[in-house]
Amino acid sequence: MSKSFERYQKRRLISSYFSVVISIFLVLFLLGTLGMFVNNAEKISNTFKENIPMTIFFKDEAKDTDIIALQKELEQKEYLKDIAFVHKDTAAIQHQETIGENFVQFLGHNPLRHSLDLHLHGAYVEKDSIKNIEMSFKENKLVDDVIYDAQLVNLVNDNVEKVTFWVLVVSGVFALIAMLLINSSLRLSVYSNRFIIKTMQMVGATKSFIRRPFVWRSIKLGLIGSVLAVIAVLSLTWYIDKQLPALGLMQDYQSLGIVSVEILLLGIVITWFSTYFATTKYLNLKSDDLY
Known about the structure:
alpha+beta; Alpha-Beta Plaits; 2 domains; four-stranded antiparallel beta sheet; 10 helices
């Protein structure tokens, strides 16, 4: 009978430890994922912005040499990410492949114009900045028109700000939920040992002596859950990096390091905090209150 009870207690204890580790892992994984997004929000935003093209169309009198000279001048600008000269004959071939018809032969001439296709660095794809860049291009007498999707630029900037704000709000809410969930799991673990705590106290053990093994055990469980969360966050980051290599998430060692350390510290601090006050509660209870 005693052996059966011991096995039951052992299974119950393992189940309690397992639930604590799983709670810590799930919550810290979610917080770590949100942390990675917040840390890389600007990079993600710039990646989308830098894919918004701007095209400079030139007048018919513009010579190839003039356009190439302007291209070399623009290559020195800090706002430029990349640029390419598109000859009107090349543009005509591309359009023919797209629409499946030889419109040049039908019209008898090529109505397209020479152009420069360029992408700006994300920091300059803002409403005011990109407008100033557009106006500077239009001041050139050889430039006929400058085309870019202004509505998309505004949409991207507005949505990035909103998404970042709400992610921060959600992160704060989940951080609070994390503390409550982990605290609840650890309190249940300490609750199952409340009679042992009181017995040790009755035979003369000090509060710090009684509290120490519970705190250390919880910290170990927190470390296990934190390490699992770090592995899961890094795995998810690696997968996203494979799908979207332009983001370069796995090459950002600083961001990866910061998030990993934050997860580990959160796992330790929350478990220490929760266990300390849980054991203190039962240490201060009278024996009759334990029931």
